[in-house]
Amino acid sequence: MIEQLTIDGNTITYDLTGDGPLVVLAHGMGDSRHSYRFVAPALAAAGYRVANVDIRGCGDSSLGWDGYSRTDIAGDLVAVVGHLGGPTVIVGQSISGGAATIAAAQAPELISGLVELAPFTRKQSVPLGALLRAGRYRSGSLRLMRAMLFGSLSAWTGYLDLAYPEKPSDWPAELARIETKLSEPGRMKAFQAMTRTSPVDAGMQLAHVSCPVLVVQGSLDPDWADPREEGEKIIADLPAGVGELVVLDGVGHYPHAQSPDEVIALVLPFLARALPRA
User: Among 11, 168, 209, 225, which one is most buried in terms of CB atoms within 10 A?
Assistant: First the structure.
């Protein structure tokens, strides 16, 4: 069931499937809710009501928003949960991992757990030594910079080639879908606006998150010279005992699409703990 929620004259589009406790899925920049195409049906089949969201400016959600920061996206996610009725667990990838952190800190009565997949949740730096040593990190950073500065679709698809060390079986069709969507008027501009936001706002909220948090990193994620170290820093900035880190070997920036079975096997036990059934 495709639904829309109007927020300040703009629209957030989401799929709603299944019955049971609510789980909200939120994707990364330059992507759409279709990135959870393998995960959402499995969660619904396991007895959850799954809201798979196109974040602002992406997928079938509208353009023309005043901002594209993690704080902005967090407000949309909280609005979706308030509309559908919480509590919920938010599964957020990349920029939406940071947004989910802010949402949990600001609306603890609605959010009982977070799963953060390859999240940008802390202030980032570009260590020159790592750029020289780590080829995947260097290549990914250069392609991301070209996409950010010039709105280059070829740079973005080149980044995706690195970010998926192993491609899903439907990758040619999925890549074509991504290219078609980002070629729509205004979509690349929204993508560029997201790339220029900083995760500082999310990092400032880590200490205020009280619900359990599962951070999942891929060992071959080109966004960091050392993905495990980034995950460990997120856990360290959370209150003691709140966070747990899992690193998936051979996985890139999109664990939910590259290795959905591994992600589902991690998420279902987490949901059972963080989102108990009535």
Answer: 209
pLDDT in tens, 54-67: 999 999 999 999 99
What is the reported pLDDT for 141? 87
Provide DSSP, the chain.
-EEEEEETTEEEEEEEE-SSSEEEEE--TT--GGGGTTHHHHHHHTT-EEEEE--TTSTTS-S--S--SHHHHHHHHHHHHHHH-S-EEEEEETHHHHHHHHHHHH-TTTEEEEEEES---S-----HHHHHH-HHHHHHHHHHHHHHHH--HHHHHHHHHHH-SS--TTHHHHHHHHHHHHTSTTHHHHHHHHHT--THHHHTTGGG--S-EEEEEETT-TT-S-HHHHHHHHHHHSPTTTEEEEEETT--S-HHHHSHHHHHHHHHHHHHHHS---
Q: What is the pTM of this model?
A: 0.96
